[in-house]
Amino acid sequence: MTSSLSKPDKPTFPWGKRLLSVMDRYIIAELIPPFLFGVGAFASLGVSVDSLFYLVNQVVEQGLPLSVAAEVLLLKLPEFVVYAFPMATLLATLMTFSRFSSDSELVALRGCGVSVYRMIAPVIVFCLVVTGLTFAFNESIVPAANFRASTTLDRALAQEKSEFRESNILYQEFQELAQPDGSKENALSRIFYSKEFDGERMKGLTILDFSRQGLNQIVSAESAVWNPQRNTWDFSNGTIYVVSADGSFRNIVKFEEQQIQLPRAPLDLARRGKDYGEMNIAESRQYLDVIKQGGNESKIRELKVRIQQKFSLPFVCVAFGLVGASLGAQLRRTGRATGFALSIVIIFAYYMLSFISGAIAQTGTISPLLGGWIPNFFGLTAGTLLLIRASR
Question: 179 near 185, Cβ under 8 Å?
Fold first, then answer.
């Protein structure tokens, strides 16, 4: 006798539903092969142009070991992988959607009631994933790899890079001075110079202090060390010259030990052993705090622009993806060579605009925020206009 009770239905959970439809998964699957091809092609091209020829020259002329050259080349690769991510996104979306268009797949989807905006949705998801990947690479892998590449190369060429600047430390401090017309102007208030630095003690120091109106001070000392308990510099074996506004000496004081209230910034500046490409955003902001104390506006603006560009670079993947998909949807029967050539043109235009906007921002004509993000705004605007056109 069979039981009349049927087996209970399997429980269903709303959160278990698939987030991506069959169409979404199909489009993303079609994007991945050309994207990987683009990453490999653009990264290989970039590292070859930037590093390979230089390393070959060092192997031939300086006797750089091949193993070291290969290690440096591999360490430089992550930087160009990051640059390749946005380019590969553009190439993948452009080639994929141009193929959909030439094979009439877009026509078939639109005939089924799927709008172009709905077709772009998986592209945006794909681009956001690549954006996150680009940001993660650029923050966690690239700075460390670049710094190790630099130190490895310098060590192999007997030019080992120290964690601090060993000689000729020059720090300039500026302050705002009120002008007779009520405006304010940055004026040089102090120059700090040291011939040598051993990582702890400055040697051969000369400090020119113009911070007091009508009275200048010159400090010359054999050495000085930063005193963290009192936030002062402890100078040893030196002389202080006090000069009046007319150029005459008002006072001369010789000392064996003397504490002088000066900023710590020269020490922080001397200990900075990395350039822009070897710092992540957090380190760049710390360095910005250091150079802000000096008041060097041109250098401050330059670093601010670089920081904004570190933020904006990953998000260009979204702009490129939108432009590539919208433009590809309008192309008919174009080959891969055409798609690749068109990608190169768009990439060249973007980086040219990025260079120009960054240079303008460094002059102070526009803000660093605009200088770093203007290319992305243009890309998103162009992509939106192309998308509207493709949907008609």
Answer: yes
What element of type H or E holds 333?
A: none
Q: What is the DSSP letter of 192?
A: E
Q: What is the pTM of this model?
A: 0.72
* pLDDT tens-digit series, residues 189-214: 888 888 888 878 889 999 888 877 76
Taking residues 226-252, report their average pLDDT: 83
Angle at which helices 297-328 and 281-294 cross, to 10°: 150
Question: What single DSSP character describes residue 164?
Answer: S
Distance linking the first and last C-alpha atoms of the chain = 65
Could you give the residue ranges of the DSSP H alpha helices within 157-249? none
For residue 227, the SS3 value is: strand
| Cα 246 versus chain centre, distance | 48
pLDDT higher for 38 or 155? Answer: 38
d(CA 145, CA 73): 10
* Spatial distance between the Cα atoms of 156 and 70, rounded to a whole number of angstroms: 12
d(CA 269, CA 303): 14
Q: What is the mean pLDDT of residues 80-85?
A: 94
Residue 377 is predicted with a pLDDT of 93
Query: What does the alpha-carbon distance between residue 102 and residue 114 come to, in Å, rounded to a whole number?
Result: 17
The residues spanned by each domain of the chain are: 20-159+309-391, 167-271
- Section 61-86 average pLDDT: 89
